Amino acid sequence: MPKRRRLTVERHGRHDHGHFDGRRSRSYDRLARWTLRGLYRQVAREVAAVAPPDGRVLDIGTGPGRLLHELAALRPDLRLTGVDVSADMVALGEQAARKRGLSGRITLRTGDVAALPEPDRGTDVVVTTLSMHHWPDLPAAAAELERVLRPGGRVMVYDFRFAPLEEAEAALRARPRLAASPVRRGPLRPGWNPFPWYARLVLAAGGETGEG
Asked: Among 10, 49, 124, 211, which one is most buried in terms of CB atoms within 10 A?
């Protein structure tokens, strides 16, 4: 994983996984395949438990799509889409999906959280794992998450404990359809890991009133 200093610097710049392009994207994929497997499985279980039948799930900062592979195994009915700013990561994800026979079930796109290539109110669950701390403009990201969510949909943010989760919650709660949402926030200990390195933030979108 990148050093914390690098993550902190990039938090104040453009949301960009440029340091994961080319050879570094392949190195990250090999590392994440093993070190993050427990996290992806835990997140997949939580998403699978709340996604409606035949629902649409959008994974922002999907990288090589490992979370979507876990979701595809748990919930064959779900329609799964991943977005990442790195074209190399998306290419790796497409290759991995083909190898697993998931090309017809997983759609991967290049895009940024501030301008998601998704229709208005077309997504039941927006999930992001270890990506939010890169986002330079949390209010802009929150506006996009609200825009793509269906009424009653969920935003599920998973990140390191040092990530700006309180700022993310404030940005999301500033959105009209997320303002009154019950919030679930706390540490996450996936699998065998006894250390609370990760944390979660979950909100639900309201109904048809307000902006969106």
From this structure: 124
Q: What is the mean pLDDT of the chain?
A: 85
pTM: predicted TM-score of the whole model, two decimal places: 0.84
Between the CA of residue 86 and those of 22, 26, 62, 118, what are the distances in Å? Answer: 9, 12, 10, 17
DSSP state of 52: P
Q: Which secondary-structure segment (H or E) carries 171?
A: helix 165-173
Select from 95, 90, 37 the least CA-distant residue to 66: 37
Cβ–Cβ under 8 Å, residues 152 and 56? no
Weakest mean pLDDT among 13-17, 46-50, 119-123, 188-192: 13-17
Beta-strand runs (E) in the chain: 56-60, 79-84, 106-110, 123-129, 149-160, 184-188, 198-204
Residue 177: name the closest of 141, 207, 134, 197 by CA.
207
* Main-chain phi, psi angles of 47, to 5 degrees: -65, -45
CB-based contacts of 165, cutoff 8 Å, min separation 6:
132, 157, 159, 185, 199, 201
Whether 154 contacts 203, CB under 8 Å: yes
* Full set of structural domains in the chain with CATH: 4-204 (3.40.50.150)
Q: What is the DSSP string of 82-135?
A: EEES-HHHHHHHHHHHHHTT-TTTEEEEE-BTTB-SS-TT-EEEEEEES-GGG-
Mean pLDDT within 142-146:
98
